[in-house]
Design brief:
The protein contains 21 helices and 25 strands. It has a six-stranded mixed beta sheet, with helices on both faces. A hairpin with a 6-residue loop joins strand 11 and strand 12. Helix 11 packs across helix 12. The protein is globular and about 85 Å long.
Amino acid sequence: MSKRIQIATSLTLLVMTFSSASFATTFVSDTKAADTIYYNGPIVTVNDKQPTAQAVAVKKGKIIAVGSENSMKQFTGMKTKQVSLDGKTLVPGFIDGHGHMVNVGLQAISANLLPPPDGNVDSIPALQKVLKEWVDNSPVPKKYGLIIGFGYDDSQLKEQRHPTKEELDEVSKDIPIMCFHQSGHIRSYNSKALEIAGITSETVSPVGGIIQRKKGSQEPNGVFEETAMMLVDSKILPKVGSEEMVNLALAGQELYKSFGHTTAQEGLAIDGFLLGLTELAKNNKLDIDVVAYPPIMLPGIEKRMESPFVGKKYQNHLRIGGVKLVLDGSPQGKTAWLSKPYFIVPEGQKDDYNGYPSMTDEMANLFIKQAYAKKWQIITHTNGDAAIDQLIRGISLAEKKYPNSQMKPVMIHGQTLRADQIPELKKLGIFPSVFPMHTYYWGDWHRESVLGPERAANISPTKWLKDAGIPFSSHHDAPVAFPDMMRVLSATVNRVTRSGQVLGPNQRVEPIVGLKAITLWPAMQYNEGKSKGSIEVGKLADFAILSDNPITIDRLKIEEIKVLKTIKEDKIVYDRSVKTANPTNSCIDSEACLQKLANTANNTQAFSQLMAKPHLH
């Protein structure tokens, strides 16, 4: 074959290759050409002006065209990579309305005490069994002299109560044990932990917390709520170094990427967590954007907010976006601050028990005004409607002192948000980040024990917010639940409980609304709506490729959809086809991961900072 024929044959094959993608048989110059074109599958843009498309063109990590396959000819060059979706669905990358990416790493090194479907603990004997197996197989107890379990839920245990110190003593009387309630607001300890902490019958419950007692006496039963947990945590938690913090953050990032996140949040960035994140950023180890919020309640916040990472621009995918405030506790743990009593009050409480605040109005107002004065966006944990009232009062005073501030304060959780509070949110510009996943995990518990049928039907009232014209984000609060955005979307759309009942059918929204609540609207929450959250020209090429279309599939099957790929600025950061550890298993199930997390002790950073303040939902 002559050289001329060889060249002609090669050119013919090249033309045939590109013609099969139906974009171009002639090519534009490299300066005009896209780096990548995605096509051949449903594309849900989350842009009301152009809801769907056949193809998307990307250059230098940004979207340069959205339209028909035919329109992509003008963006196809010799070097353009053409990515067929093979019938799978392309959506904007998911944006974390509220979660704790680094804290997910802490969960990764703990015994998995979660109830089904995320774990196997449905009774106190099952909890004891998991802890004993973890002690036998994990290097953590020997390395650090501590047994850690994460995620038990008294509402899902057959006994319908928290494990006592005596029941944890059956696991070990020699090594201190701490078991995190799934909410993060309650812990159960064994007798050794209380002994080390110096806890006795004379120990007084601190402000904003409760030490539970044995019935008819002042002897602690091992269950501690809210700020009371720090009496024990500060004494039994070991010290770990910066390398461990980095590994915790890496473990959290891997899990987040596997569920399609291109923007994550560390919703209470205590010093150790900030250390891990900043080290990752400095060494270009963050694959997705992370927004961190240090707690304004802890001393030294002004120094923390002098970090070069503070601001509206990311540096190597990290920025400190503002500060975090906590005003109450957990509804399913019955520590959230309500305006009316709990449907069934906890044992030992009076009939009018309605939870309790984390702080006084005076203190809350002081923190909120400080944030406004410094122009820090403030995100505030409020589960109970009384705590939401406290937030509204505080923001109202700050707005009067600093009018037209455009601060966009965020209400985190808002579980028991009342209809009469919604106009106040709109008036004050408070952005709601709500938690419809509760309808699945604790919906039955809310209806039968926490709130009663009427109040439970309206937890996380997304339809009220939509009808009021208020954008909202829908979150998972990981590690309270796995950061599975398809479960978040399903709960927002369906509100189906564990028992299969619909909790508050009038609060359900359409799938496209639910999708906005995990893409476009949380981008607005972060003041990043111009660069993220939808597939539009000029925005970042942040995508998730899904196994099915969440808009057209049977809405009850949304939770079955899998994330196949996560793409950050046109770079694949997660690929389900590449064999890795099951993303829904904790790190405990991976010996390599555990060793990586447990075998690097520099003893330079207090591990007690990990849970320096109750902060999950």
